[in-house]
Design goal:
Elements lengths: L1 E2 L4 E2 L3 E3 L4 H4 L2 H4 L4 E3 L5 H4 L2 H8 L7 E5 L1 H10 L13 E2 L2 E2 L1 E5 L6 E3 L2 E7 L7 E6 L4 E4 L8 H8 L5 E5 L7 H7 L4 H8 L8 E5 L6 H9 L6 E3 L6 E2 L1
Length: 240
């Protein structure tokens, strides 16, 4: 299983689409057909319309958007609404439909390409899901955007094994009040959340660090002294 901090993805599918239209190579863009959207905030969907638009004429199968019904409704209302972007779910090219929604339900496992995926509700300011993804050999968990939460940890701890955990740490400790209001984690609250984790032998990677505070957040994460915690590096390919 592979992933990068720009776009958590394999050759066939992606999690979120904040930079999918610009971070992937042309070859990769032409292979991705399944996109799991964890929530509707702009940094997680910003280039989704551009991604579909760029491939529009050449698509021989639709781009499949896997999301909860709440997220699908937000995308249709706020993005693919004919004002911001065309409603691609209603459009066809010479080969057929160009985009379709596949609703997913929380805590119900579903299949995307060769992967088994379970969406778990987390605690963010809009409806948001974290993910547990497995390809039979490897299991990876992704918190998406969240503050302190319980259901996500319960689901991870019930998994037979977890090889890697990607967890957000958006703001430095000095901005705890903003993090609380925006429903995000700081290094201090991340450390508290990790105490809920029962798995020990796994890679833990901090993601979603706000660029303006990146150096400060990294310093604070390193000062936690958690040996298996690192910061996920943009552009680097990880293999588990």
């Amino acid at each position: 299983m592979k992933g990068t901090d720009d776009c958590k993805c394999t050759l066939w599918d992606a999690v979120d689409a904040g930079s999918i239209a610009i971070a992937l190579t042309s070859d990769q863009r032409h292979k991705v057909r399944d996109i799991i959207v964890t929530h509707s905030h702009m940094d997680h969907i910003a280039t989704l319309p551009i991604f579909v638009d760029d491939l529009y004429a050449t698509l021989k199968e639709p781009i499949r958007i896997h999301a909860t019904q709440e997220i699908i409704d937000a995308l249709e209302r706020d993005v693919f609404n004919w004002n911001v972007y065309p409603r691609f779910s209603r459009l066809r090219n010479d080969y057929g439909p160009v985009m379709e929604y596949i609703p997913m339900s929380v805590r119900e496992e579903f299949t995307v390409a060769h992967l088994r995926v379970t969406a778990i509700s987390v605690d963010h300011i809009v409806p948001t899901v974290g993910l547990i993804v497995s390809d039979e050999k490897t299991t990876v968990a992704f918190s998406s955007d969240t503050a302190e939460t319980e259901e996500f940890w319960d689901a991870i701890n019930r998994a037979a094994r977890v090889d890697a955990l990607m967890i957000e740490s958006s703001f430095p400790n000095s901005m705890t009040h903003l993090a609380r209001d925006a429903r995000h984690l700081t290094p201090a609250t991340l450390a508290k959340e990790l105490r809920k984790l029962s798995h020990n032998d796994l890679d833990i990677m901090a993601v979603h660090i706000k660029p303006a505070y990146r150096n400060k957040v990294i310093d604070e994460l390193q000062s936690l002294g958690i040996s298996n915690l690192s910061v996920m590096e943009p552009g680097r390919v990880y293999v588990w």
